[in-house]
Write a structure and sequence with these properties.
Layout lengths: L1 E10 L2 E11 L4 E6 L5 H8 L7 E6 L2 E2 L5 H6 L1 E5 L10 H5 L1 H5 L4 H14 L4 H4 L9 H13 L5 E5 L7 H18 L2 E6 L2 H7 L2 E6 L2 E6 L1 H6 L4 H7 L4 H6 L18 E2 L4 H11 L3 E5 L5 E6 H4 L2 H4 L1
Parallel strand pairs: 3-8, 3-9, 6-7, 7-8, 11-12
Antiparallel strand pairs: 1-2, 1-4, 4-5, 9-10, 12-13
Length: about 300
C-alpha cells in the first residue's frame, strides 16, 4: 500500500529522515513513534506530499507518489491532526463535506455520508449537523475532524498526534472509536504519536524512530518482549514492562468458570484496566460478562499478576 525506499529529507543540512525503507501493508494500523525530532511527523507528511522528500522513492498503491498531482493524492488520503483545523464559520455538516463537495458529489449523497459519519462517531446527526465548531467541546471537535478525514472514503487515513490536546478520558474514548473504525472498515491507518500507551493499544505494528532512522519495528508484543537494544528497552520502560504487557491482553483470555459478587466487567476490557478495577474495589475476583451482558465466568486477581500474565 505505502512503500518507502531509501527515503531522506534534509532540513538546513541535517537529515530529519535518513535513508528510510518502510512498508505499510493494506489494511494495517501502523503507528510511528519516537522522541521529539525523531522524524515521525515528517515521515507521515511525506506520504501525502505535504512535505516533499529529497532522496529515495515513495510508492502509494503501486505508483510513485511524484506521478500524482498533490491534490489528487490527498483526496485519496484522509488527514487528521491535533489542531483539527475546522473552518469556524462553517457548520459541522459543511466541514465534514469539504472533500465530497470538491469531488462534486450529489447533495443527497453528501448528506447521507455526513449522517453516516456522525452516527459512526457517536454524534447525534439532528443535534450536531447544524452546529458550529465553537459550540462543540474539544472531543466533539476532534470527532468532527476525524469524520471530515473519512468523508470521501479514503484508502488511507493519516493521523498526526490527533488526540494530543485532549483530556485522558476523552482521549481514551476516541482511541476506542478509531480502533472500532479500523476493525469495521479494514482501512489502512498510519498514526503518529508520542504516547507509548496509545501506540500499544492501537497498533498492529509499531515503528520506533530515532534521528530519522528506524530503530525497531514489530508488533507491540515483540517490542516489549524482544527489544532490539537498550534504546528500545529504555523507550518502552524497563520497570513497568509487566504493566504494559497487561494492556495487550483482554479479560477474556484469563476468565475462568465460576461466579463472583459485584458489578461485572466486560470480557473485552484489557487486563491493565481490570487491574485498576481490582485495586479500586479491593477485591480478589470479579464477575465477567460478554457483549450481550451474558455471564462468562470470573477473573481472579492472582491470575492477573501471575508470572504467565507478566512474562
Amino acid at each position: 500500500m505505502i512503500h518507502f525506499t531509501q527515503v531522506s529529507k534534509i532540513f538546513q543540512g541535517k537529515p530529519a529522515v535518513d535513508d528510510l525503507t518502510l512498508q505499510i501493508a493494506e489494511g494495517e494500523f501502523a503507528v510511528l513513534i519516537g522522541t521529539s525530532g525523531s522524524g515521525k511527523s515528517t515521515t507521515l507528511k511525506m506520504i501525502n506530499r505535504l512535505i516533499e522528500h529529497d532522496q529515495g522513492k515513495i510508492y502509494f498503491a503501486g505508483e510513485e507518489i511524484q506521478k500524482f498531482k498533490p491534490q489528487d493524492l490527498r483526496r485519496r488520503m484522509g488527514y487528521a491532526i491535533q489542531s483539527i483545523g475546522l473552518f469556524p464559520h462553517w457548520t459541522v455538516e459543511e466541514n465534514i463535506a469539504t472533500v465530497p463537495q470538491l469531488l462534486k458529489w450529489p447533495r443527497a449523497r453528501i448528506r447521507d455520508r455526513v449522517t453516516e459519519l456522525l452516527e459512526l462517531l457517536h454524534l447525534e446527526p439532528d443535534l450536531f449537523r447544524r452546529r458550529y465548531p465553537h459550540q462543540l467541546s474539544g472531543g466533539q471537535q476532534q470527532r468532527v475532524g476525524v469524520a471530515r478525514a473519512l468523508a470521501a472514503d479514503p484508502e488511507v487515513l493519516l493521523m498526526d498526534e490527533p488526540f494530543g490536546a485532549l483530556d485522558p478520558v476523552t482521549r481514551a474514548a476516541l482511541q476506542t472509536e478509531i480502533a472500532r473504525i479500523h476493525h469495521l472498515s479494514g482501512r489502512t491507518i498510519v498514526l503518529v504519536t508520542h504516547d507509548i500507551d496509545e501506540a500499544l493499544a492501537l497498533a498492529d505494528r509499531i515503528v520506533l524512530l530515532d534521528q530519522g532512522r528506524i530503530v525497531q519495528q514489530g508488533t507491540p508484543l515483540e517490542l516489549l518482549t524482544a527489544p532490539a537494544n537498550d534504546f528500545v528497552r529504555d523507550f518502552f520502560g524497563r520497570s513497568d514492562r509487566g504493566i504494559k504487557l497487561l494492556s495487550l491482553a483482554t479479560v477474556a483470555e484469563r476468565v475462568r468458570p465460576g461466579s463472583a459478587d459485584g458489578e461485572p466487567i466486560a470480557a473485552a476490557m484489557s487486563l491493565r484496566e481490570a487491574l485498576s478495577v481490582f485495586v479500586a474495589r479491593g477485591s480478589e475476583s470479579l464477575p465477567v460478562v460478554g457483549e450481550q451482558g451474558e455471564a462468562l465466568g470470573v477473573l481472579h486477581f492472582n491470575d492477573l499478576i501471575s508470572q504467565q500474565a507478566l512474562s
